[in-house]
User: Which sequence fits this backbone?
């Protein structure tokens, strides 16, 4: 079944780039492409898409419209997934997005828009109720916190940091196993160890809850 999508982006070039990219994908039905928050609100009410792909900043305010819109959908249309696009590496927006709700939410840098595989991963993840966080944002969060001697991140092994980054992008244990070419038992061991250092429950296998837990942990640490 094709995923019905509304795209919201004030930059004409990026909006057209997204439209052309998505038009070539057999898993997508692009039902609307809009340039500002009022148009996005109207398009969602009219088409009831499966996923919204939106800029983090849009007219009329050019501040945090994409994040606020995603927060509003949590209550008005909880079934709609949201992929938020950001021009710059701004971990605080990602943390805010996932703090409100992790399931059905993704945060992606605009530089990834031309990567068909990456944008597909994000869209399909949120459409299925999962989560996706751009690996570059994860790296920025981890690197910032790792420099703090008091942070449990400083006690993680290099492999545990790799596993943590993959958890935050929404991958399951099996996907992490394939990505790192490890056995399932080894992956489980690394996850149990790193979550124990965060005082988080390693038995919670729901991917989006793990993403939210890790991000909320990271956001609670002073940079």
Assistant:
């Amino acid at each position: 079944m094709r995923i019905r999508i509304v795209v919201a982006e004030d930059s004409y070039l990026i909006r057209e780039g997204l439209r052309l990219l998505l038009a070539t994908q057999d898993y997508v039905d692009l039902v609307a492409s809009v340039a500002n928050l009022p148009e996005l609100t109207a398009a969602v009410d009219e088409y009831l898409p499966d996923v919204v792909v939106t800029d983090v900043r849009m007219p009329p305010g050019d501040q945090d419209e994409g994040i606020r819109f995603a927060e509003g959908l949590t209550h008005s249309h909880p079934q709609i997934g949201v992929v938020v696009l950001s021009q710059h590496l701004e971990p605080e927006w990602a943390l805010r997005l996932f703090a409100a709700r992790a399931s059905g939410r993704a945060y992606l840098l605009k530089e990834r828009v031309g990567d068909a595989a990456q944008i597909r991963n994000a869209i399909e993840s949120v459409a299925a109720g999962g989560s996706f966080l751009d690996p570059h944002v994860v790296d920025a969060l981890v690197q910032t916190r790792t420099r703090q001697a008091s942070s449990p991140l400083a006690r993680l092994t290099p492999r545990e940091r790799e596993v943590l980054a993959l958890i935050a992008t929404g991958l399951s244990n099996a996907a992490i196993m394939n990505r790192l070419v490890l056995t399932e038992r080894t992956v489980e061991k690394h996850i149990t160890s790193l979550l124990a250092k965060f005082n988080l429950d390693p038995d919670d296998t729901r991917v989006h809850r793990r993403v939210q837990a890790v991000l909320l942990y990271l956001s609670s640490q002073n940079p």
